């Protein structure tokens, strides 16, 4: 039996370009789907409805991510704080539209490439390993307008060109890569994921197929440049429970879990469509446009590791009596679990569910695992001196890390990285707000974009520094 986390375990934090960089229209950057997505608590409903225009409309909406937290200009200050915490890795994303402003440009934007090279070099100067997500909810807007998003097969080749460009530029400096962030949100038609409005189930699964092919092509490019490069897929994982032992609820849970938690991973890790998905397509009348050689490509270029976000579990019931009492979640919810408490945003807190996720994924796939997102969104209230006592966040993370350690030492899971979400406060993807904070670092900015943008350490900053320094063995209060 091992004793705790392996030597060289990658502790760090995670962010996304569209939620912290700002500078949305400078140095040649084009617009992305994130740039035209309004902020506010109705963001997800508005996006799902497709009623907002594919243009920026300041007369109706606010767009907090346009300025983000100005990481674009302040990255050196922020990376220095990550280094002070002891980060071993920093998960970031590259905005496709900084490299190819329209997504289909003939030549890349050198200013965008130079910016990311500077960020990468700054990380390496502080001995922080970059982990780069190629596409994190920021498809160039022009690809929606011109091609209709990822249901169009033309995006495969455009993404391949983008991947080739960034991999050729950075492969000597960046070992760890992820292709599509939370790819499985495309199962139910997330605009962020597949950049489509008014999508049908046919569109959703065609878009996912196109992303699977694009991901395999990126993996192929990476491995041809350097076989040592590590390319991972990334999905949401929500441990699922049946509300009770009623076989109908257990079957409903199984059906929901396999299409949401496993389908995309099955294709990207195992390299083929699972039989349950093929049967589902047949029953739903879904006919994928699969070009010659694409299934062979999926089989030949599977990912090296599996990464996932974990925030909460979900409870499933088909009993009408349970449907009125629901919980919220990361793009979806379930019925309320009577054994769990919830965050201020209604996301149920379930540390044991993370251990179950690790066990289930490792037993199914047998590849190394990377927890690329986990954390507590909460309202943090600083005192007059900007001291922030976020003991509730420490509590949340402590419980989850303790369950990770059990998965490693008791269950034998090969876990090699943990990057809590929003290691510095940034604009929330689900609500477009700053008030839903995750970070170890407080950024003085409100939902309307007012504030100094000054950075302040929260109590959790020193606590996480202690966790990293002891390789996860000291989780006690500071």
UniProtKB/TrEMBL annotation:
InterPro entries on file: GH, GH_1_N_CS, Glyco_hydro_1, Glyco_hydro_1_AS
Gene3D superfamilies per record: Glycosidases
Annotated Pfam families: Glyco_hydro_1 (PF00232)
GO biological process: one example: carbohydrate catabolic process
Keywords annotated in UniProt: Glycosidase, Hydrolase
Coiled coil: none
Keyword Disulfide bond annotated: no
Active site annotation, chain numbering: 373 (nucleophile)
Molecular functions per Gene Ontology: beta-glucosidase activity
GO terms for cellular component: cytosol
UniProt similarity note: Belongs to the glycosyl hydrolase 1 family.
Protein name (record): Glycoside hydrolase family 1 protein
Organism whose genome encodes this protein: Vagococcus allomyrinae
């Amino acid at each position: 039996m091992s004793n705790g986390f392996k030597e060289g375990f990658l502790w760090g934090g995670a962010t996304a370009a569209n939620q912290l960089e700002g500078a949305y229209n400078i140095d040649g950057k084009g617009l992305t789907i994130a740039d035209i997505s309004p902020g506010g608590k109705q963001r997800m409903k508005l996006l799902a409805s497709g009623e907002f225009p594919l243009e920026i409309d300041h007369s109706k909406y606010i767009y907090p991510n346009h300025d983000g937290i100005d990481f674009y200009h302040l990255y050196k200050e922020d990376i220095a704080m990550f280094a002070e915490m002891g980060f071993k890795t920093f998960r970031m994303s590259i905005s496709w539209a900084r490299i190819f402003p329209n997504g289909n440009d003939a030549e890349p934007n050198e200013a965008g490439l130079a910016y990311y090279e500077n960020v990468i070099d700054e990380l390496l100067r502080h001995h922080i390993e970059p982990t780069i997500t190629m596409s994190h909810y920021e498809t160039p807007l022009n690809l929606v307008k011109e091609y209709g998003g990822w249901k169009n097969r033309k995006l495969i080749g455009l993404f391949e060109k983008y991947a080739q460009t960034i991999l050729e530029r950075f492969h000597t400096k960046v070992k760890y890569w992820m292709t599509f962030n939370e790819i499985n949100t495309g199962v139910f038609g997330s605009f962020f994921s597949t950049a489509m409005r008014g999508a049908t189930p046919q569109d959703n699964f065609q878009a996912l197929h196109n992303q699977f092919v694009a991901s395999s092509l990126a993996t192929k490019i990476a491995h041809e440049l350097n076989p040592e490069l590590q390319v991972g897929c990334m999905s949401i994982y929500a441990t699922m429970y049946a509300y009770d032992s009623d076989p109908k609820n257990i079957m409903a849970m199984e059906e929901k879990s396999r299409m949401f938690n496993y389908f995309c991973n099955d294709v990207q890790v195992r390299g083929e469509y699972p039989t349950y998905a093929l049967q589902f397509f047949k029953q739903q009348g879904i006919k994928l446009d699969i070009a010659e050689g694409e299934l062979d490509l999926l089989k030949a270029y599977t990912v090296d590791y599996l990464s996932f976000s974990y925030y909460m579990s979900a409870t499933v019931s088909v009993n009408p009596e349970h449907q009125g009492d629901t919980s919220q979640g990361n793009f979806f919810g379930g019925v309320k679990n009577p054994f769990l408490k919830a965050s201020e945003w209604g996301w149920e807190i379930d540390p044991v569910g993370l251990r179950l996720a690790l066990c289930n994924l490792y037993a199914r796939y047998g590849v190394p695992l990377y927890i690329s997102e986990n954390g507590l969104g909460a309202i943090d209230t600083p005192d007059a001196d900007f001291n922030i006592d976020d003991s509730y966040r420490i509590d949340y993370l402590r419980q989850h890390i303790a369950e990770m350690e059990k998965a490693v030492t008791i269950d034998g899971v090969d876990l090699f990285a943990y990057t809590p979400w929003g290691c510095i406060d940034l604009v929330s993807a689900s609500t477009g707000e700053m008030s839903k904070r995750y970070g170890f670092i407080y950024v003085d900015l409100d939902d309307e974009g007012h504030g100094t943008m000054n950075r302040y350490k929260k109590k959790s900053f020193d606590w996480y520094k202690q966790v990293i320094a002891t390789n996860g063995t000291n989780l006690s209060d500071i």
